[in-house]
Amino acid sequence: MTGLLALSRLIDRLNTFVGGAVKWLLLVAVIICTVNAFVRYLFDMSSNAWLEAQWYLFAAVFLPAAGYTLLKNEHVRIDVVTGRFSPQTRAKIEIFGTLVFMLPVTGMIFYLSLPMVWDSFIHSEMSSNAGGLIRWPAKVLIPIGFVLLSLQGLSEMIKRFAFLQGLIPDPGEKRGHH
Length: 178
What we know:
Structural class: mainly alpha
Number of strands: 0
Membrane topology: Multi-pass membrane protein
Keywords: Cell inner membrane, Cell membrane, Membrane, Sugar transport, Transmembrane, Transmembrane helix, Transport
GO molecular function, one term: transmembrane transporter activity
Distance between the termini: 27 Å
Domain Tripartite ATP-independent periplasmic transporters DctQ component: 30-161
Largest sheet: none
Protein name: TRAP transporter small permease protein
């Protein structure tokens, strides 16, 4: 279990790094959105590329940070039901949900996204909007995001098993934000 907990800490550090890095992309998206709005209203000019850049930046924040969100225990949950259970029962529910639902779904989305990303890359797929951007950089975020989410799911499952064995405190408690 010691090796698995070390792997869990490594995954946690990876997603903490990614979460810390992508938050700056949110600032860039807000700046682009603001400048684009001012230019559009003041000079009656706009560009599809700037609008698409905002969408791409949103994807660059949302998809890679999904694992970080899980690490911080901020995903939507059914706490109204599970909050009445013991921490051990909640840990067992988390393990079950991760094994039966999360990992299969994230694995399937990863697998199904690869041909789409590859096709977009080899064909240099461009947006259908006039002046739009190349699409593959945004599409590659899908498998990256789902790998990071899957890894964090694995980390959370390891921590739940360690908790059930009495090796660590309850990992299901809300963690502080960094």
